[in-house]
Amino acid sequence: MYDKICRSCGTYLSDYFRTGMLGCPHCYAAFRVEISKTLKKIQKSAHHEGKIPTLNSVDRELYAEYKRLLAEKETAVLESRFSDVKKISDELIDLKSELERRGLI
Ligand SMILES: [Zn+2]
């Protein structure tokens, strides 16, 4: 079966689909394509059924991840870990656009 793994924490894509939980900040980057496909599917069916989209576990997970990365970036800045700051900033850009697209921020 097709599966992917997050190299940072060992979470499988199939685990994410089963639990809706990301294991670590890198999961989102590792599974980005699949997550965005899933989200599109959810939005499509929500639209089709005429329901108002509610905050689901994926939304909450993404938002919590965003907050966590912001805090992590701040720590990295304070500790002058500039390569980490750059890395986290890149992840934040992706996450932020996803959150904005979903109307969460
Ligand atoms: Zn992970």
Write structural notes for this entry.
By secondary structure, this protein is an all-alpha fold. The chain has one domain (13-101). It is 69% helix and 0% strand. The protein contains five helices and no strands. It is globular, with a radius of gyration of 15 Å. The protein starts with 12 loop residues before the first helix and ends with a helix. The structure holds zinc ion. Zinc ion (ZN) is lined by residues 6, 8-9, 11, 23-24, 26-27.
| Shape field | globular
Low-confidence stretches: none
Q: How would you sum up the major sheet?
A: none
**N-end to C-end Cα span:** 36 Å
> Could you estimate the helical fraction of the residues in percent?
55-70%
What's the count of strands?
0
Which class of secondary structure composition applies to the elements? mainly alpha
Note the beta-strand portion. under 5%
Computed over alpha carbons, the radius of gyration is 15 Å
Mean pLDDT: 82
The figure for the number of domains is 1
Q: Which distinct ligands sit in these coordinates?
A: zinc ion
Number of helices: 5
- Give me the strand/helix succession: HHHHH
Structural features:
single chain, binds zinc ion, 105 residues, mainly alpha, globular
Structure summary:
This protein has 5 helices and no strands.
List the helices and strands and how they pair.
Blueprint: H1 13-19, H2 25-30, H3 32-48, H4 57-78, H5 82-101
Helix pairs in contact: 4-5
Bound molecules: zinc ion (ZN).
